[in-house]
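Hey team,

Filing this mostly as a record. A colleague (T.K.) asked me to run one chain through the structure pipeline before their review meeting, and I want the input and output archived in the tracker in case anyone asks later how it was produced. No errors, nothing strange. Just documentation.

Input sequence:
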Amino acid sequence: MRGRARSCAEEDGASAQTRGGLIYWSAPAMTAEAAALVPALVTVVIPCLDEEAYIEACIRSVQAQVWPRDRVEILVADGMSLDATREILGRLAAGDSRIRLIDNPARIQSAGLNECIRRARGDVIVRMDVHADYAPDFIEKCVAALERTGADHVGGAARPKAKTFFQRCVAAALRSPLGIGGSKYSQGDAEGFVESVCPGAFDRRVFERVGLFDPKAITNEDAELNQRILDSGGRVYMSRDIVSHYYPRESIQALARQYFKYGKGRARTLLKHRNLSSIKPTLAFLGLAGEALVLIAAPWQLGGLSLVGYALATGAEAVRVGHTEGLAAIPVVWVIFPVLHASHGAGFAIGLAKYLARPDWDEPERLPPADVPA
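Output structure:
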């Protein structure tokens, strides 16, 4: 894979071969019986914090991958969880030597990812998140897409999956252009080069070239890294064959907190790079700011009309996307739309104020080349 699979096979004088988009290493130094093709070594990196309800299912989905068992290592960065997460990971690691628990004292997801990547042996780095399920061929399709496209980062669409009634309502809202702006990011059948993608697999060398994740990015760390990839001349690819499903938040309050943080993260990325690859992340903020100006300037003449128009538009869309979950879902979806918009817009505004006053980013740390000691 263009030099990705540096491994024990390579050290023995192995050579690379491509078959069906996948990379294998042939090892002529081995005996004739053992001279099999060796797939690329893959490092799966998983950040977590207080995830006792989800962590075991996530690890089991990694263990169920069809990629050869001895060509996968599983690194889990735990942000010093206070629930049973660490005990569960300890039990799983006792039964699977590929699992390594790594402390993440910073407790931030991006910092945890970096802790894993610094220790990774693989030349393909696959990011997996705890609140998600993964198709058994997730790793296989990621590796194939990296090789087929030559991209630096590949992934699939953001496909929501629900366990509860409220999560089904959130998933319905996120299927709407009003929920996510109609981005390819959510279209399961989308294929091609994009601005950002649901995290999947990286060519290790991208971290050598553009640096690791921003360790102070509380959210939006994937989009921020993708922007650095694009700015450096790299490419990001979305494949319909790479399938995973994530679980939305389980309450209005949790959803509002999540999107408030998303808004702050987007504002931070904008100020850090002085540009955005798309205007979509700013739409909620612009709408909120515009409505505030209207209410201040002409509260009786235009303010009421704009609010009524917004309510009618979101209500009609709630009927369109929510009726498939039953009539009871329609009012819930109707409420979810303004929660998404207001929390993201407010977070963006707070982020602009905070990071304009006090920028907190540094030059990105770059990963040493694989053949150079750290």
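Quick notes for T.K.: The chain has a mean pLDDT of 85. Residues 329-357 form the longest helix (29 residues).
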